[in-house]
């Protein structure tokens, strides 16, 4: 892998410059270096992303080749190395020894938009609660709530988790449906197989937030599994459950 | 379908006798009629189960041909008709118009025992909390808790739900891992793909309850997807989400 692209979060340019120097010493060919996702090109062997999970989410939509995220401070769920571990990454690159972590994209049909984490339909603070009707192949659910999240396994550790949702291992082929502040007792998450199309209707237009990006107000949308998936390269010792334990202390041995 | 077996919950004999009269009028051949699961034979076209979900669970282990449950009062998750709907069933039988609801069995390797709902590892009331280590292909989780449940999608509406777990549609290919009274904040359910073997170790022997049956104390067990599945015949208008709405009011339109 010698043809690289680099996408970085504005403000991290100085770090990026260091990385570029080190890569050039390895005779790497860098075809793009930008903090503007529109300038990402999809003909590299590997796209390096310097920033948090949000930056990885942005870049992932534009590339089909593997991606590697570098984050300051602690690791995110989608980043594979901390910024301080760049030399470690270069060693792994030498021996091309990476674990391939495949993540599935989903799409919102009406917006013709992909997502890797979740789509959130939510009312504005001054509005009353939504009546939400969720239809799928084998049935339907109705919610009177502030909103609803339809999350991928990748997104299950994001907003859905904050609302009480379960943790899905990345290789589970399913959606997670989690209501936001539901009235009555319908507060549990529902897990649906990812080969079904899900259609949602709300009693009045609500904001559709797709991977953190607000697309404005709609009273109807439908999602299905996309043909697109992305491969995140990880160190060989990567273990999803380890990242859950480190980040949330979930299922961590406190007695060791 | 003319060759029937009938398995019933003790105490429901008089109802069963009525059913038998009606079936004989339809020239049905009844090869077994018992409330003792050991007497169930596996060469019928269809096994009728009169009783609750527990009775269906018992029968399902012994047959490979389809099963239909009849329950008094309200429907259970595994029953397809109420006892009062027997004539309706006979009509559906005439036209052989049923929806096939396939449910996957899982197995506990050490006990050589199948389960359709869940396996529960739990301490006795006088004992201290368990240290529980759960290993799977891609990682492990550790819990300090009263116990742990490994549930199938079918079992996700049983004990796991009572402990805060999500609802899985029957056709999701996954396990649900739900801790019982965990210390620290590891209280969320974890969803794992059903093609992985799960191994559990506890700091001291705990009761293993498999589909409600206590197998005694063990400090180790492992589960995997079984080759066995069972087909539950349903009325054509069967809809899992409807049964969830009826039974728990989950995602039900209260304004209609």
From TrEMBL, chains A, B:
Q: Which UniProt keywords apply?
A: ATP-binding, Cytoplasm, Kinase, NAD, NADP, Nucleotide-binding, Transferase
Q: Which GO terms describe its molecular function?
A: ATP binding; metal ion binding; NAD binding; NAD+ kinase activity
Cellular location(s): Cytoplasm
Could you say which cofactors this protein requires? a divalent metal cation
Q: Which HAMAP family match?
A: NAD_kinase
Which positions are catalytic residues? 53 (proton acceptor)
Among its keywords, does the record have Transferase? Answer: yes
Q: What is its main location?
A: cytoplasm
Instruction: State its Enzyme Commission number(s).
Output: 2.7.1.23
Name of the protein described by the UniProt record: NAD kinase
Binding-site list for NAD(+) = 53-54, 58, 117-118, 128, 144, 146, 157-162, 181
In terms of NCBIfam families, this protein maps to: PRK14075.1
Record-level GO BP terms: NAD+ metabolic process; NADP+ biosynthetic process
- Family affiliation: Belongs to the NAD kinase family.
The terms describing its cellular component in GO are:
cytoplasm
Q: Name one Pfam family in it.
A: NAD_kinase
Stored InterPro entries: ATP-NAD_kinase_N, ATP-NAD_kinase_PpnK-typ_C, NAD/diacylglycerol_kinase_sf, NADK
